[in-house]
């Protein structure tokens, strides 16, 4: 089945020579228009921005344009394939940003493997964009890049492999625990894999109120705990993982995946493609009605039916052909819609929690073991999520243009609705060919 999608994707990319193009926003009906949009009229726009750079968010397209930036060191399940090979993935991301969020995104794979060089390039690009989406950058380098850029830039910087996955996971867990009648903040949680996504998932769960000691994390060498032999080297080479080795696992449990799952209420696996990474008997050893999130792509760490046979009450994967897809695409278009409309200067964990809670609320009326999150096709969730983010940014004093939930809901509905309608019009007019 996967080979079918591979072959079809290559054919489609060749047919269209890529997935997006830019089009003007303004009408051009006479030569006089050029005097307004370019010379001489544009000089006054530049003069005013030179006196107040924040006017660039009002007088140019910067307010709605972001960069999707990658060094190509960790592309999908392919690994370090290079900047050029990262381009189709970044381009696909830009397509989703536009269709589901109304966000104009520019794919920018760059040849900057060194973290400091990467940071320097992105900092130099700041005047061109209203936000930065980092993508497919190897760990632990991605943590340093995100931390430093978030501190030093005055626009939101986002790493989808960290923040997007963590936000979607939190939303899914909020609803999954409702189904099994447990409280997320008191749950025993095993995180299998300690890379970009699960380290940020641990961070967001703790910010949400989960007790750090109730989380047990497992990397390729086993359970993280302060007495592990590699703690000194980990402190130097990966201080982000080291931090969670110190603050999680209150009982100082040792071992590997089976030991981590014993007595757990929840397992979130974001490790490597399976199946067989998580075994049925390990799920059976979890607490009653366990929740299993097996998020590796293209093959989850355990097949959903195996997890169910082992007693799992709610099972989620990263795939669209199984129930309960935990999908970053439910998060990043809407989060950036809210951030951009509020002209936010950064993105915080409080905003991500607001987004996760809104996602969970949207799904709650139809909640079931096989429906804990909205599907990508339920576009009505995106304006609601954007509104939650913009309102939280405004509440925190991090918005250049403060907006209430209701104000942003109306703005996001109009922008996202127009984006979807534009696609329909272009297809019906034959400008985009089927």
From TrEMBL:
Query: Which domain of life does the protein's organism represent?
Result: Archaea
Leading EC class: oxidoreductase
The Enzyme Commission number assigned here is 1.1.1.38
Identify a single GO molecular function assigned to this protein: NAD binding
Question: Is the Oxidoreductase keyword given for this protein?
Answer: yes
Protein's name according to its UniProt entry: Malate dehydrogenase (Malic enzyme)
Please list the residue ranges annotated as the Malic enzyme N-terminal domain.
17-150
Q: What is the lineage of its organism?
A: Archaea, Thermoproteota, Thermoprotei, Thermoproteales, Thermoproteaceae
Question: Gene that codes for this?
Answer: mae
| Residues in Malic enzyme NAD-binding domain copies | 162-394
Q: Which UniProt keywords apply?
A: Oxidoreductase
Family note: Belongs to the malic enzymes family.
């Amino acid at each position: 089945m996967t080979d079918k999608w591979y072959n079809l994707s290559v054919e489609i990319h060749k047919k269209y020579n890529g997935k997006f193009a830019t089009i003007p926003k303004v009408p051009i009906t006479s030569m006089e228009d050029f005097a307004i949009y370019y010379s001489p009229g544009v000089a006054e726009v530049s003069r005013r921005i030179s006196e107040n750079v924040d006017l660039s968010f009002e007088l140019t397209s910067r307010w709605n344009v972001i960069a999707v930036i990658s060094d190509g060191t960790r592309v999908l399940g392919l690994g370090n394939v290079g900047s050029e090979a990262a381009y189709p993935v970044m381009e696909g991301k830009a397509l989703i940003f536009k269709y589901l969020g109304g966000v104009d995104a520019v794919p920018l794979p760059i040849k900057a493997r060194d973290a400091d060089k990467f940071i320097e390039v992105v900092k130099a690009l700041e005047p061109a964009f209203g936000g930065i989406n980092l993508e497919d950058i190897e760990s632990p380098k991605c943590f340093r890049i995100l931390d430093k850029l978030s501190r030093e830039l005055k626009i939101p910087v986002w790493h989808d492999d960290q923040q997007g996955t963590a936000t979607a996971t939190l939303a899914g867990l909020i609803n999954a625990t409702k189904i099994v009648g447990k409280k997320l903040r008191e749950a025993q949680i095993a995180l299998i894999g300690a890379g970009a996504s699960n380290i940020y998932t641990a961070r967001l769960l703790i910010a949400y109120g989960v007790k750090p000691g109730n989380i047990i994390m497992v990397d390729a060498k086993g359970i993280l705990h302060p007495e592990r032999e590699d703690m000194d080297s980990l402190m130097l080479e990966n201080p982000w993982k080291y931090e969670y080795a110190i603050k999680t696992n209150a009982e100082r449990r040792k071992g590997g995946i089976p030991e981590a799952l014993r007595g757990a209420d929840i397992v979130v696996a974001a490790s490597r493609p399976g199946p067989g990474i998580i075994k049925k008997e390990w799920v059976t050893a979890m607490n009653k009605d366990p929740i299993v999130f097996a998020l590796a792509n293209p093959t989850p760490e355990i097949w959903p039916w195996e997890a169910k046979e082992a007693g799992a009450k709610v099972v989620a994967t990263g795939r669209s052909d199984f129930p309960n897809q935990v999908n970053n695409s439910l998060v990043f278009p809407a989060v950036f819609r809210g951030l951009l409309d509020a002209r936010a200067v950064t993105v915080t964990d409080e905003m991500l929690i607001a987004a996760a809670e809104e996602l969970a609320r949207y799904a709650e009326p139809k909640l079931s073991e096989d429906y804990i999150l909205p599907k990508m096709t339920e576009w009505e969730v995106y304006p609601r999520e954007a509104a939650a983010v913009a309102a939280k940014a405004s509440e925190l004093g991090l918005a250049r243009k403060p907006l209430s939930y209701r104000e942003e809901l109306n703005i996001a509905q109009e922008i996202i609705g127009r984006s979807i309608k534009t696609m329909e019009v272009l297809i019906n007019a034959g400008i985009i060919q089927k």
